[in-house]
Design brief:
The chain contains 12 helices and 9 strands. The protein has about 270 residues and is an alpha/beta fold. The strands form 3 sheets. Strands 3-6-7-8-9 form a 5-stranded mixed β-sheet, with helices on both faces.
Length: about 270
């Protein structure tokens, strides 16, 4: 199923629920204001397609090589290729390089053999219709592909928490279990660096570690959503007065730092 087709399926998906990590106000706004598409997102989608379903390249992607994307020629090209992902030739080359690195990696190649790719999951949970579309499912293994600036462990872990990858995979695991009647045995993230040489790493989310934390946070978000819907109250990030403290460096002991402070704080 295409990205556009999946979007039309009824159900709450993680990319919507994730906005509650910011605030209920952000969640409600996102429901009626979809994220603007960007060249970076298009490259990411092309990379996913080339990694997971390369045989569908010409069914879903059109390559623009006409220079600046503006003017009558560009508008006519969009009309002619309506429904397809339009990417620049240089962007497709970047996606192909990342996909080649992923598919050639010794740990990833076995995971993709015979995998079911981007198959939607739909289920009912607490009276609410849910949906998810894992990148790939190989037997009882859930696989998520992420492009990243770096796959260095410390930084990728930080990115995982900041962007809620653990919650996203918990959402997918919940859907997998609801549909198949058993939990996945493994949940992994395949990370590939955007810049050459496009290094690749496989990270596993353990059921009693990151995946557990993701399930807990996801449950809290769903509880919060239910309460917001019940009360029709959608507060922002800080519904109460916040204390404003200065950063620690503002109180440094060296003379140069002290001279920057107001006299009342010296």
């Amino acid at each position: 199923m295409t990205h556009a087709g999946y979007a039309t399926l009824p159900g709450l998906r993680w990319s919507q629920l994730a906005h509650l990590r910011t605030s209920p106000l952000a969640y409600r706004h996102a429901l009626t204001h979809p994220r603007a598409d960007t060249a970076s997102l298009a490259i990411g989608r092309a990379t996913h397609l080339l990694c997971l379903q390369p045989d569908r390249l010409h069914e879903e992607i059109a390559v623009w090589s006409g220079g600046r994307r503006a003017g009558r020629e560009w508008e006519a090209y969009q009309v002619e290729h309506a429904g397809l992902e339009i990417v620049r030739a240089e962007d497709l080359a970047e996606a192909e390089a990342m996909a080649t690195a992923v598919r050639a990696h010794q740990l990833v190649a076995p995971l993709l053999i015979g995998a079911a790719c981007e198959v939607p999951l739909t289920w009912m949970e607490g009276g609410r219709r849910m949906k998810a579309r894992p990148d790939a499912v190989q037997g009882r293994t859930l696989i998520e592909l992420k492009t990243a600036r770096t796959i260095e462990a410390r930084q990728l872990r930080s990115q995982c928490y900041r962007l809620g990858y653990h919650c996203q995979l918990a959402h997918y695991a919940t859907g997998y279990e609801a549909v198949h009647g058993h939990a996945p045995e493994r949940v992994v993230i395949v990370g590939v660096e955007k810049d050459p040489p496009h290094d690749v790493a496989v990270y596993e989310l353990l059921a009693d570690g990151a995946l557990y934390a993701g399930r807990e946070e996801r449950a809290e978000l769903l509880d919060r959503l239910t309460e917001c819907e019940r009360t029709d109250s959608w507060p922002g990030r800080y519904p109460e007065v916040q204390r404003l403290d200065l950063p620690a460096w503002a109180f440094a002991e060296d003379d140069d730092a002290r001279c920057r402070l107001p006299s009342a704080l010296r």
